[in-house]
Amino acid sequence: MPTHQSLGGGTDEELLDRMIKTHPERFGSAFWELFDAQVASHLPPRPVIIDLGCGPGLLLRDLGERYPGATLYGYDLTPAMLVHGRALPGPGPKPTLTLLDVTTQPLPHAAGTVHLVSMSSVLHIIDEPLPVLAEIRRVLAPGGIFLLNDWIRQSLQSYLAWRQETSGESEAETLRRGFRLFPAHNKYTTEDWQWLLGKAGFAVRDHAQLRPAHRIFVAAPGGAG
Ligand SMILES: C[S@@+](CC[C@H](N)C(=O)[O-])C[C@H]1O[C@@H](n2cnc3c(N)ncnc32)[C@H](O)[C@@H]1O
């Protein structure tokens, strides 16, 4: 299965640990400013929200705190992620977290019933993204939003320097892991993501670079299909 482990990113536990540690920076004030400006007005007071490849469930927890009436679903193929997410305390609604491989299983939702699908640092892993995007488009309600947050291509030198600066790894470790992960993390340019979303029938309403290595796209069903 195309997990981060097989891509050279370490064990499931190491990935879980990294996702937890980097969550506050990845989903900090810049993220919520964009969310408030570009996404919030499209959501009803009691939205149905999916986080696809939800990892440790922290984004769903944060969304639940903002939307106490929300119905939250998280899907991931790594059991350790779901175990962590299910144990999270918090005042918001408890998400339903389910083991699912998005490349082989449909989303268990009727067409047109979901107001927001978020996918953060997952789509670049998927070898054939179009069927996954079609499934996301199927479940989105009219006016629903697909929030794609993912890696964008940079030079080998800047990728390795950024990794060394932000990961806390030793230089040797960065050179080992960084080289293995470079092809996966540096697969798509901003233009490639825009083209891919358009090809899958999404209209990109906005996109922004909140972090050096990632771009976030606010998309909605529409466009050529
Ligand atoms: C880099 S982590 C990101 C986790 C989370 N979205 C976040 O930003 O904190 C990628 C996640 O995608 C999950 N994943 C990878 N391939 C998947 C697939 N085919 N179906 C479902 N989840 C997948 C992994 O298990 C992992 O939890």
Task: Give structural notes.
The protein has a seven-stranded mixed sheet, with helices on both faces. Helix 7 (156-167) crosses helix 8. It starts with a helix and ends with a strand. By secondary structure, it is α/β, with parallel strands linked by helices. It has helices spanning 4-7, 12-26, 29-38, 58-66, 79-86, 129-139, 156-167, 171-185, 190-199; strands at residues 48-52, 71-76, 96-99, 114-120, 140-151, 202-211, 214-221. The protein is globular and about 50 Å long. It has nine helices and seven strands. Bound molecules: S-adenosylmethionine. The site of S-adenosylmethionine has 20 residues, from strand 2.
Name the beta content range: 15-25%
Overall radius of gyration: 17 Å
From the helix content, strand content and strand pairing, which structural class follows? Answer: alpha/beta
Low-confidence stretches: 1-8
Short summary:
The protein is built from nine helices and seven strands, in the order αααβαβαββαβαααββ.
Walk me through the topology.
Blueprint: H1 4-7, H2 12-26, H3 29-38, E1 48-52, H4 58-66, E2 71-76, H5 79-86, E3 96-99, E4 114-120, H6 129-139, E5 140-151, H7 156-167, H8 171-185, H9 190-199, E6 202-211, E7 214-221
Parallel strand pairs: 1-2, 1-4, 2-3, 4-5
Antiparallel strand pairs: 5-7, 6-7
Helix pairs in contact: 7-8
This protein binds S-adenosylmethionine.
Residues 2-4, 19, 53-55, 75-78, 81, 100-103, 120-122, 125 line the site of S-adenosylmethionine (SAM).
